[in-house]
Amino acid sequence: MNSTSTNLLEIKDLAVEYHTDEAVIYAVNHVDFSINKGETVGLVGETGAGKTSIARSILRILPMPPAKVVSGEIFYNGNDLLKLSEREMRKIRGNKIAMIFQDPMTALNPIETVGFQIAETIQQHNSISHAEAHQRTCEMLEMVGIPGDRFKDFPHQFSGGMKQRVVIAMALACNPALLLADEPTTALDVTIQAQVLEMMQSLKEKVETAFVLITHDLGVVAEFCDKVAVVYAGEIVERGSAEDIFDRANHPYTLGLFASLPKLDATEKRLSPIKGLMPDPTDLPDGCRFCDRCPNAKDECSKSSPKEAEIAPGHTVKCFFSGGN
Amino acid sequence: MGALLEVRDLKKYFKTNSGLLHAVDGINFSLETGKTLGVVGESGCGKSTLGRTILHLLEPTDGQIFFGGKDISSPGKAETRKLREEMQIIFQDPYSSLDPRKSVSEAIMEPLKIQGSLSKDEMREETRMLMETVGLAARFENTYPHELDGGRRQRIGIARALSLKPKFIVCDEPVSALDVSIQAQVINLMLDLQEKRGIAYMFVTHDLSVVKYISDDIMVMYLGQMVEKAPADELFRDTRHPYTRALLSAIPVPDIHNKTKRILLHGEITSPIDPGPGCRFMARCTHAAGGCHQMQTLEECSPGHFVACCRYKEIEKEDTA
After folding, report:
1. Contact at 8 Å (CB) between B28 and B9?
2. Residues from chain B contacting residue A217 (CB–CB below 8 Å)
């Protein structure tokens, strides 16, 4: 039942909708996505693009209702995660696939010590003694740069950057094969972000975990990722290696994103924003989702939806004028 | 003095249970008409408090503020109201800074109503003009903030700040809640307005690439004090203070070929409660030495470039050696 490739995780044709009383929100629109062992993939896009919904559907922690997975398969080790029973899913969640949440202030339980919270995860998935769990927890804390003797401290005794380290330690406690990091440094100051990124970088070398890094910050992606997928209005509009995206970006949205960033060596007087706004996810335009904002849009763009086309090995673009279509 | 705004030795302390919190501790600067001063620093460095203290949203503990040559350090009630017409603020969060029960036009009209010099029709006309100025379509007149996205909400905030034709606006992280493509739209709008109306901005932010883009001068704050101030280009080209160096090197650059060496700071920002007399950055500084225990004074290392570090010359030698 597995696909033919050696992917660690493979998402096929995933579509997620949120059904509210007023409208249906089309959050993820038939996304294909895969990641190999030990790889780091950046999922880049703006607020509401559907990045977090993709990550949450992998772990099956979408708020249901209102969320609904209307189509798709997510293969992990030959099994479709979406078809597993909740019992089987619990063996994977936090154990084989773990997640780092955006806001370290709310991701921890304020009335339990951090040590307890990490040990709990370990004992949930491994039949080991308290003493061993304690031992392992201290090792995890040390690994993320927190002295092991802070085991008995509560979350409020840590600063923001330290809390995020605790969250990372917890996510890595069971040696997951895949780690989903949802904006792990967005809530942190730049100097603290630098510390956390540096730490994640060195962890990446130590453990054989594959990372999916969800972010809106192209700078963070440039530092951390081997591959990049650009998400717009619930679709992946461009994907490729970091070099493909940063040096040879092809989709007008990706190009627009780069152009709207203030550059540190800029001389021009005005920024070049993408005109308009992201389309309303309850009322997506026909054809290409980006056509209303696209500087190169032609008639056909609003009539039919472009297919994802490979313009170079591994570099695909969803645009009529990419050269691949 | 030709400066529009001059701040001398401004201090703002807060009493807390564990001691005096030095949020703003002896800041000096001046700002000319039509110019932008960028204020950068990490959360808790006092940059927002500085902006609010200048506007008298918080009363200064000590120090002087001159606006248009006039001392406004402790204005009376009537004078404060008059000052509000000349000095305004744009808040960070366009979600919480707008009254959810006021429609777009009501929100923009509110300052005009309070000022009370225009007739109803004139106010309506003015509101329409303001909406046009900030790029809000007339059809949004009767919509409410919750129906709008962050970018449009921030435009309401800007229109409100502009309504009384101020000469000076404190922009407290006006674009950090916005996505990059929208952020660029709002920044361009603010630059256009400055060009047309000659408004002076104090642009408070933690986003260093934005601040370089928009500012004439940049001031770097650390724990309530100014550690370095220089013209925008020069600050990035010729960085002197070890904190500024670490801060600049920490910005992730969206370029995979530009892997500059990062200066990694250890530890986190120390407590602003009852700090000692020495350099406040000392605990995290890799260059700290004996002289750092003394009070640091601002030194002008080149015209318009100030640095508060007693070792900046030696550090440069250490780094090039």
Report:
1. yes
2. 252
Pick from A22, A163, A191, A230 the residue to mutate for testing the B interface (most B CBs within 10 Å): A191
Residues of chain B with pLDDT under 50: 1
Distance in angstroms between the alpha carbons of the first and the last residue of chain A: 31
Q: Are B222 and B243 in contact (CB under 8 A)?
A: yes
Domain that residue B91 falls in: 5-237
Are B268 and A161 in contact (CB < 8 Å)? yes
Residues B200 and B247 grouped into a single domain: no
> Structure pTM?
0.83
Query: Which pLDDT tens digit goes with each residue over A199-236?
Result: 888 878 887 888 999 988 888 898 888 899 999 988 99
Greatest pairwise CA separation for chain B in angstroms: 70
Q: Which of B198, B221, B237 is the last residue of a domain?
A: B237
Instruction: Single out the residue in B237, B270, B292 at which a domain terminates.
Output: B237
What's the CA gap between B199 and B203, in Å, rounded?
12
Please tell me if residue B262 touches chain A, with a CB cutoff of 8 Å: yes
Name residue B127's amino acid: T
Q: Pull the structure tokens for residue A238.
A: 């461009």
- Do residues B89 and B53 both lie within one domain? yes
Residue of A nearest to B185 (CA): A273
Chain B CB contacts of A46 below 8 Å = 179-181
Together in a domain, B49 and B109: yes
Most A CBs within 10 Å: which of B256, B259, B262, B286, as the mutation test of the A interface? Answer: B256
